[in-house]
Every structure is written in C-alpha cells, then in structure tokens.
C-alpha cells in the first residue's frame, strides 16, 4: 500500500472518530471504536472496520445504524478532507479485539496447565 493511501485511510479514520464523538448523539454508537479503514486505490469505496468497547451483542443494529448514516458521514468528510471524491463508506464489524482476548485466555490456560500439569 502506498504512503498516500495509508495517509488517506488514517485521515478518514480520524475524522470519522471525531464526527462520532462530537456530533452523533445516538446511544447505540457510544463507545464505538473505528479500528481501521481500507480505501480502494481509486478512492471510490472505503471499508470501515468498527467494534464496540462494551458489547458486541447489538452488532447488527449498530452496523445498520452506521449504514443508514453513511451519507451523512460522507458529507461531513467532504467538508474537511481535501479529496476530489470522498469514497462511499461501508461498515464492517471488526472482531479482532475479541479474537485477541480469546487467544490470550487460551494461552494463559495453556501456561497454567504446563506449570501445574496435575491440575492441582
């Protein structure tokens, strides 16, 4: 990935985070984290990966809310980014934090078992 694309991804991530923190008052989007943005090379489309810091139980509802507000987010990005075309936004759930926590638990369990193989 080129340096320019990395910078565009970072700018979109930062601005979307700012918009959600300061301008959105929807309780479903509180504690939402934008983990990554992957923009297509032609800047026509951007995948936005999100997770919730508290729960992942309502992920379908959260993604529907974000998808419904994608036009608003795109308009707000157009006001602050100096791009000829602001990409269409698509939101995806990022479960990497959950997978990482699960792997950490498994590693801890394996370490405990290797230190105390009899289970005492």
Automatic annotation (TrEMBL):
It is found in: Cytoplasm. SUPFAM superfamilies: Ribosome-binding factor A, RbfA. It comes from the Bacteria. Its main location: cytoplasm. Keywords: Cytoplasm, Ribosome biogenesis. It holds the Pfam family RBFA. The keyword Cytoplasm applies. PANTHER family: RIBOSOME-BINDING FACTOR A, CHLOROPLASTIC-RELATED (PTHR33515:SF1). One of several proteins that assist in the late maturation steps of the functional core of the 30S ribosomal subunit. Associates with free 30S ribosomal subunits (but not with 30S subunits that are part of 70S ribosomes or polysomes). Required for efficient processing of 16S rRNA. May interact with the 5'-terminal helix region of 16S rRNA. Belongs to the RbfA family. HAMAP family: RbfA. Monomer. Binds 30S ribosomal subunits, but not 50S ribosomal subunits or 70S ribosomes. This is Ribosome-binding factor A. The lineage of its organism: Bacteria, Bacillati, Chloroflexota, Dehalococcoidia, Dehalococcoidales.
């Amino acid at each position: 990935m080129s340096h320019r694309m990395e910078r565009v991804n970072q700018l979109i991530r930062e601005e979307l985070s700012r918009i959600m923190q300061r301008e959105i008052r929807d309780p479903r989007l509180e504690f939402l984290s934008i983990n990554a943005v992957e923009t297509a090379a032609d800047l026509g489309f951007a995948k936005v990966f999100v997770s919730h810091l508290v729960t992942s139980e309502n992920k379908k509802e959260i993604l529907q809310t974000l998808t419904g507000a994608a036009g608003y987010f795109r308009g707000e990005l157009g006001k602050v980014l100096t791009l000829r075309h602001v990409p269409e936004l698509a939101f995806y759930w990022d479960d990497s934090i959950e997978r990482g926590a699960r792997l950490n638990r498994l590693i801890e369990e394996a370490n405990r078992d290797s230190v105390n193989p009899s289970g005492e």
